[in-house]
Structure formats: C-alpha cells, structure tokens
Amino acid sequence: MRSLLFVALTIGLASCAYLGLSTVGGPYSAQANPRADIQAALLAAQADHKFVLLDFGANWCAPCHELLSYFHTQRADSFLQANFHLVYIDIGQFDRNTDVVRKYGFATSLGIPALAVLTSSGEVIAVARGKSLSPVSSGDDVVRFLSAWINRTSGGGSTRPLPPVQFDPGQVRSAAETLAMRTRKASGGTFVLQLDVNRDSVTSAIVNTWQDTLVQHVRTVHDALSLGPKEVWDSTRGEQVHIIYVAGRVRGTRVTPNPPGPPDTIHFDLLTDPNTVDRRNLPLIVSLLALAPSTNAVIPVFDSWTLRTYSVRLVIGDRIRVTRPSGTVDGYRIDLSGEMWNLPQTWYVSADLPRRILRVEWPQDAVLEAVR
C-alpha cells in the first residue's frame, strides 16, 4: 500500500528519476556511511549551534549538479558555511541508502535532488522534494529558500491557507461504526470508527484488526469547535507516532522499524497550513461533511510517513442508489484524490440521517463495507 512511484519532474529545477545515465564525478559517494556522517554532523552542530543540511542525490543526476553549482556561488557558499553542516547522501539508482531515505520521510519520493534540514538535536524542520525546489534557480534563491527554513517563519513560497472544511453540526455526535474489510485475496478484517462528543471535548478513535489481530489503533483529540486535530497517537506494526498540531505547525515523534538495527526515531517540527488535518482523520471528515451535491473542496492533509502536507481534493457526487449486501439505500459518492500514497479513495455515505458510512473503496486494493 505504500509503494512509491519515482517520476521525472520538469518544472523549474527538474528532479531526476532513473534515466540510465552513466556516473560522472561529484560529491555523492557510494562508499560513504550516511548514518555515521549524519551523526558526526549533528555532533558538530551541537558544538557550533549550526543546522544540518542533508542533500540526497546522485552523481549521474544533472539537476543535482545544477543545484550544487548554486551552492558554490559566493553568497550561497558563505551562507551555507555559516549556518549548516552539509551531508551528501548517494541514492544510487534509487537503490542505495534506502533506509536513510525512508527515515527522513521518503525524501526522494518525487525524484532528486531532495533536501532535509535538521536542528542540532536531529529534529526535522523541513523537507524539500519535487516542485518545492522549483523556486531555486540561483545562489540568491538558495539563501532565500534555506533562510525561510532556519528562521522558521514561512514555508518559502507557501500559498494562502485553505479554508476549513464545513461539517454538518447534526452529525457531530457520539457514535460508533464497524466496517468489514476485504482485500483482493482475503477477508476477515474490521475497521471500527468511534466519535465521543462531550461538552468540552471531542475525541475519535480507529481500531483496525485483521484475523482478530490488532493492526492499528489511533486516538485523536479534536478542537471542540473546528474539529481540527490537536493531538494524535497512532500505533501500527510499521509506525508509532505522537503528533501535536498547533498554530500552523505540526510537531511530533515517529518511530519506525529498522531491521536488523534498533528502531529509527525521528522528531519533527514542520510548518503547515493552519487548517491541516491528519491523514488518520479522513474517515471522520468524510462522515461528518455538510453534503452539497456536485461540489468539491480541497483540504491540507499531513502524513507522518512522508513528513509532508498534501492537498487532497474531495468531490461530492449527486444523490444515488447504493447497493449493499443488506439491500439498496440512498447515498452520496465522495471521491478523494491527490498525491498522497493511499489515494485515490471512493466513499459512499447514506443520505438519510443519522448519516452512516456504507462503503469505502481503494481501487485494486481493499474494500470496507458496513456490517449492518
């Protein structure tokens, strides 16, 4: 479900995907040990109070060399030396140092070059990949781009915050729904959504099991008025995460397996849209929407797996008849699309109140369906 497609980008500073180019000279070394190099850079940063800049690339990648040429201009070089310890990470043909790439939010998922900035404590405060590097076309751009990160005041070209999604107040009530899960190969899972609404607090939970084994447990504390996330805990076999959303920032800790070594622990503090929701809250959002047929909305969604905020589009269809094993009912189709790894999705919710989730489809992957 988390497979990543590496594609070539041609906007601004084009990102390289594997093109079968021959290796040329450059700073990316196949013999280097990035984990050791990063640790040494962090120790140096703790001593001189600088940041650590990770540069993911390959010597065969022309845009990587183009970015390096900007680094070597007089102003950018002075700025980098004054503020950063630079670590080059060779990704080979997207098959080298994959553990480090994964640790830092699948930094190369949209191609190379890709950059990440760490504080001296190892906290990730920025990751740039794909289109986010397109404004960089000179040494002066490098200084402006990285200054925004280390000043931690703007996202370096961020757009106007998206408006919050509109919920149906009548749907914001304590409730629980159980959906049965089946994949292309088997069935036997359950997906339980719970919402607890009290006078001063709103919490939600997701409990996902497969063949009676717990797969995921999510708990979210929401803002009582906007229903935006305030704090999220998630436990799965592939990720343990604790996230806090506050004042246009997302802060948290993510722990992921790293066999055969100890688990990777990453702390992050990233800028985001003030109206960002957590990826795990999408089921809640869809079930509580104020449905207006033939309308659409765009919402910012943060994913701790990739340390990235995505723009997710919701398109609400007309009222239709939805066929289920227990019969046919009136409902609405809601399509979710975007660049996030678990999209597209199609949701079907009942038209009659209290509204219920009828079915969820991930094309060629899995289906969730109400058990009653």
Outline:
This protein is of the alpha+beta class. The chain has 6 helices and 19 strands. Helix 3 runs parallel beside helix 5 (139-151).
Please provide a written account of the structure.
This protein has 372 residues and is an alpha+beta fold. The chain contains 6 helices and 19 strands. The strands form 2 sheets. The chain has a 15-stranded mixed sheet with strand order 12-11-10-9-8-7-6-5-19-18-17-16-15-14-13, with helices on one face. It has a 4-stranded mixed sheet with strand order 2-1-3-4. α3 packs parallel to α5 (139-151). The longest helix has 15 residues, at 34-48. It is elongated.
Let me know the largest β-sheet.
Answer: 15 strands, mixed
- Quick one: overall form? elongated
Radius of gyration in whole Å, from Cα?
Answer: 22 Å
Number of strand elements: 19
Alpha-beta content class: alpha+beta
The rounded distance between the terminal residues' Cα atoms is 27 Å
Structure keywords:
372 residues; alpha+beta; Glutaredoxin; 2 domains; 15-stranded mixed beta sheet; 4-stranded mixed beta sheet; 6 helices; 19 strands; elongated; disordered N terminus
Secondary-structure blueprint of this entry?
Elements: H1 34-48, E1 51-57, H2 62-71, H3 74-83, E2 84-90, H4 98-103, E3 114-118, E4 124-128, H5 139-151, E5 175-183, E6 187-197, E7 202-210, E8 213-222, E9 229-236, E10 240-246, E11 249-256, E12 264-271, E13 277-278, H6 282-288, E14 295-303, E15 308-324, E16 327-337, E17 345-350, E18 357-362, E19 366-370
Parallel strand pairs: 1-2, 13-14
Antiparallel strand pairs: 1-3, 3-4, 5-6, 5-19, 6-7, 7-8, 8-9, 9-10, 10-11, 11-12, 14-15, 15-16, 16-17, 17-18, 18-19
